[in-house]
Inverse folding.
């Protein structure tokens, strides 16, 4: 999840996100679809990297878009749609992960282990593949906040301040969550 | 489009196929509340769309003014523009503008009785509900395509200076760039194109309708003792057999390429060809399904869509897309107002997929719940 402006804005081609947001707010369903076409891959990609399991990722992507379109009126800066949408994905993922852990703890949901080999692309360089496998091997054992923070930082490549902003947490809290996650990762070093 | 900052993200395997994204969008669309449709005229709605797209970079929002009192000055110069994605604009009277990728259309004139678009590059397909009181024109490098109600596409490639017009339904009039030559009428299935560079260099005698189109704008040289060159403007009824791909896989590839490029009509023709030439091929069911989606969506042919979905279901009973095809068949029947067929298709879907991903959507169709 990044705050990079839309392609159309950078190239000067196509309606800007702001224009599409304005049109969508005015009741133009084509504008909603245009926003989905523009940001669907980003949202689905981020959802999958956070939740891993395909079905859950699709559900998260749907939820994020539905929330975004039904709450467009609260978006103060329409041109910031992408960053706002990313924040919704993160926030919704957090709620899902917490609910998932609770259900698992109550015995109402079977744990679904992650197969790191299925997550990592066969085209990944060896060192990147090893890092990713290690990361995804411990992901299920992390708390929801640790999990999201480490994925945003290590996989999405966000700055610490950006991670804090997306997760709506303080920088200090983010540092603690990352430190905890990194310790868990370090304990796995050498296993892959 | 967004891309992660870190190169690491791209090494996490994520299925971002069009089919998956389409599935997600379908579910999102199903969950969204119906958009309120403001009571505006066709013109006002067209004006709204163009104005929003054209002025957003300047931070100006014209919606309130447009909705209440559209004026020519407010609209003049407004544009619709696409980058890598196609964009469909549905209009209130049922008309539709389809912009392919890398297309720029400028609204050069707009009034209640006259709408003019200038195609600066790319392709725009106009599916217009007939209105005798409105003159609708698309200009491309001086070529004017004038219509009152039909479905046609105009393509302009600034690099090759070629303008093409293809009529899928109804008829259009094509006027030479300088407007002084006899107009040419094209009917459904006809395709016309002009190479403006050749036309400008080598004007044809104005004795034949097609030649008249070529004599347009600037006669740089005197048409004296020169060897006649091929006409710049030609009318093609359809792709030649020599161009046809030899296999179902090649037809499918051609169709998918056209679809990704936003050429819905071209994609549909390729799917139809696959179905006609290779009806027993394993890809026929998928081709019928994709054809149905195109007809239900950008081509706005709901009856044709229903026919295609029926065929998809019959050709590929065990396919991964069967559930989607059955749901879309319900949608097509509902859109066509065929309530009995709709109810039957709805019952069939709910019987086979009572907990299906489209169950909620299907349950709301056909006018009953």
């Amino acid at each position: 999840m990044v705050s990079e402006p839309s392609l159309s804005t950078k190239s000067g081609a196509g309606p800007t996100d702001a224009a599409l947001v304005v049109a969508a707010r005015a009741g133009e369903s084509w504008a909603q679809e245009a926003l989905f076409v523009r940001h669907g891959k980003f949202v689905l990609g981020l959802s999958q990297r956070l939740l891993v399991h395909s079905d859950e990722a699709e559900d998260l992507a749907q939820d994020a878009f539905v929330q975004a379109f039904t709450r467009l009126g609260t978006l103060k800066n329409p041109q910031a749609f992408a960053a706002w949408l990313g924040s919704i994905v993160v926030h919704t993922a957090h709620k899902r992960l917490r609910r998932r852990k609770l259900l698992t703890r109550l015995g109402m949901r079977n744990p679904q282990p992650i197969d790191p080999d299925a997550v990592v692309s066969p085209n990944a360089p060896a060192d990147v593949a090893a890092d990713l496998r290690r990361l995804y091997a411990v992901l299920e054992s992390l708390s929801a906040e640790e999990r999201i923070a480490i994925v945003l930082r290590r996989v999405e490549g966000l700055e610490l301040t950006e991670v804090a902003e997306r997760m709506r947490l303080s920088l200090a809290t983010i540092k603690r969550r990352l430190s905890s996650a990194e310790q868990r990762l370090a304990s796995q070093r050498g296993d892959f | 489009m967004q891309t992660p900052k870190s190169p690491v993200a791209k090494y996490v395997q994520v299925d971002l196929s069009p089919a998956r994204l389409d599935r997600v969008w379908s579910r999102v669309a199903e969950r969204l509340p119906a958009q309120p449709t403001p009571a505006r005229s066709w013109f006002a709605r067209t004006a709204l769309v163009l104005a929003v797209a054209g002025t957003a970079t300047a931070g100006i929002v014209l919606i309130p003014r447009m909705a209440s009192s559209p004026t020519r000055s407010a609209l003049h110069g407004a544009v619709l523009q696409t980058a890598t994605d196609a964009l469909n604009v549905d209009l209130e009277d049922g008309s539709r503008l389809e912009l392919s990728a890398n297309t720029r259309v400028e609204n050069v004139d707009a009034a209640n009785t006259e709408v003019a678009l200038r195609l600066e590059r790319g392709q725009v397909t106009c599916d217009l509900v007939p209105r005798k009181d409105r003159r609708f024109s698309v200009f491309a490098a001086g070529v004017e395509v004038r219509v009152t109600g039909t479905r046609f596409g105009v393509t302009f490639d600034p690099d090759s200076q070629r303008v093409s017009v293809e009529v899928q339904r109804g008829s259009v009039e094509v006027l030479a760039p300088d407007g002084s030559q006899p107009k040419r009428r094209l009917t459904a299935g006809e395709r016309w194109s002009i190479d403006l560079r050749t036309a400008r260099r080598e004007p044809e005698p104005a004795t034949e309708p097609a030649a008249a189109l070529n004599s347009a704008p600037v006669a740089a040289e005197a048409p004296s003792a020169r060897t006649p060159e091929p006409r710049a403007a030609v009318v093609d009824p359809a792709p030649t057999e020599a161009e046809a791909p030899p296999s179902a896989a090649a037809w499918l590839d051609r169709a998918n390429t056209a679809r990704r490029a936003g050429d819905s009509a071209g994609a549909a023709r390729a799917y139809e060809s696959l179905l006609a030439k290779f009806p027993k091929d394993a890809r026929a069911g998928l081709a019928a399904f994709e054809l149905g989606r195109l007809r239900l969506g950008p081509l706005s042919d709901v009856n044709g869509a229903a026919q295609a979905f029926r065929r998809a279901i019959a050709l590929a009973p065990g396919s991964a897309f069967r559930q989607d095809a059955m749901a879309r068949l319900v949608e097509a029947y509902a859109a066509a107002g065929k309530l009995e067929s709709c109810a039957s298709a709805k019952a069939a879907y709910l019987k086979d997929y009572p907990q299906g991903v489209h169950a909620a959507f299907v349950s709301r169709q056909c006018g009953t719940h």
